[in-house]
Amino acid sequence: MALRLADGTAWSEVLDRAVAAAPEAFSAPTDGLRTLHNLIEGDWRTVGTPATVRTPVDNTALVRLPRLDATAARAAVAHAAAVHRDWADTPLADRKARVVEALDALTAHRDLLALLLVWEIGKPWRLAAADVDRALDGVRWYVDEIDRMLADGREPLPGPVSNIASWNYPMSVLVHAELVQLLAGNAVIAKTPSQGGAVCLTVAHALLHRAGLPATLISGSGEELSEVLVRAPEVGAVAFVGGRSNGGKVAAALLDTDKRHFIEQEGLNAWGIWDFSRWDQLAAHLKKGFEYGKQRCTAYPRFVVQRNLVDQFLDMYLPVVRSVRFGHPLAVGDGWSAGDPLPELDFGPLISAAKADELRRKVDEAVRGGAVPLHRGRLDGAPFLDGQDTTAYVAPSVLLAPPGRSRLMHAEPFGPVDTIVVVDTTDELLAAMNASNGALVASLACDDEDEAAKLAMDVQAFKVGINKPRSRGDRQEPFGGRGASWKGAFVGGDLLVQAVTVGGADDRLYGNFPDRTALPPNV
Questions:
Q1: 3-state DSSP of 426-493
Q2: Of 26, 361, 467, 520, which is the most buried if we count CB atoms within 10 A?
Q3: How confident is the model at residue 1 (pLDDT cuts 50, 70, 90)?
Q4: Could you give the CA distance from residue 424 to residue 444 in angstroms, rounded to a whole number?
Q5: Rounded distance between C-alpha atoms, residue 176 and residue 445, angstroms
Q6: Cα(256)–Cα(484) distance, rounded to whole angstroms?
Q7: Given a cut of 80, is residue 256 above it in pLDDT?
Q8: In this structure, are residues 50 and 35 in contact, taking their beta carbons and an 8 Å threshold?
Q9: What are the residues facing 261 on neighbouring strands?
Q10: Rg (Cα) of the chain, in Å, rounded?
Q11: The pTM is what?
């Protein structure tokens, strides 16, 4: 049966809604494409060299994104620093009122923001809507808690917070963080991710700007703008979310400074299986783990399995992998009508055809090196439109025993590819789970929870779940990483507000610092 786009979800219609919501942030069409503006020096401006942005959903052109050079970015940062001083002196009650005004406007456009994420980064509707909802609900919690969090005399930073985030969670990570930073009295600067989310972030920042919040939105090459957004003396703190390569460069650029920072990088999050029998329970967790094609920092791509449990694990696990649903996130059948739910998928495309091709090469490399392909899915039969470009889509794969020299042995694939390592002792279990020099999360499946708790003490992850996955967390839950997966202050709940404010002389933050690691209680 031929599929079609769900009514009202074509890109032209979604973009028209975005322009109607924030006309000041878009140019008139040229050669069929609109160009986004940058929010700099207190206004939306057309400066920058336009580059075409394509959707991973079907590789069609969406908009043009004008990339600033370092000179324009430097002027934007200087302006943000100037308005930061006024915002820092704004009474907390007034800051709260403006943030609530922005939240109300974002809530009114919730469905539009989610549809933009579907097209821009390929999230299925349910996950895109959840990204928006987590941002809005999370910030409302901070609005209720911020008086308590600042009651001990904490003050804003000496300059604005510079936010450099990856493309996978534009609302629940980037916009959420900005709004909390604003609540705490800081002006904010955000760099638009180069790979996706630009239109969603443009609309969101237009609504923040209308509410009187001092926000700057800059697009451009990370290599071109890093010196300004990371090292500019006016910047009070740097918040980075992304891969270890770019995160390492940011961390290196800060080594000779005392600038506040929190740098979240991926780790190879592992799930250990030892003396375990509750397979139905584990199956439910693993199916959910495929959401968004495992393109997130808290995904579990590595399973470390006790040898005498491998057969039972595979009996449970392989049917889960084969049940994963992926495809075009807006493709429906002829019987679909307005008001019906959009497709219920686990994931759509990867963020780009280039990333999909890179992941396929990593799988082929591992197999050539000796990994055993237990499952390699195909695109055949997935819900796509006739003639649709599918180059950004990758079906799930499962590899047993990737060779030590392969990239998949030591690095996170950031896609729907899982690797399984077989072990005979708990020492081998821990060594395999700690193969990447630190992780954000890990889990242990073990019937004896006391034994699991003992093993968890030696797992190099910030959070370790016992018979359940761990996530980034919301609201009061702290978040960070062990080893190379995190640099600087930890965040989440009170820790996020502490990270973007200054306390007294004895103010010592929790985090990973060059001279110490300080973990918060109960982590």
A1: HHHHHHHHCCCCCEEEEEEECCCHHHHHHHHCCCCEEEEEECCCCCCCCCCCCECCCHHHEEEECECC
A2: 26
A3: low
A4: 15
A5: 32
A6: 19
A7: no
A8: yes
A9: 238
A10: 23
A11: 0.96
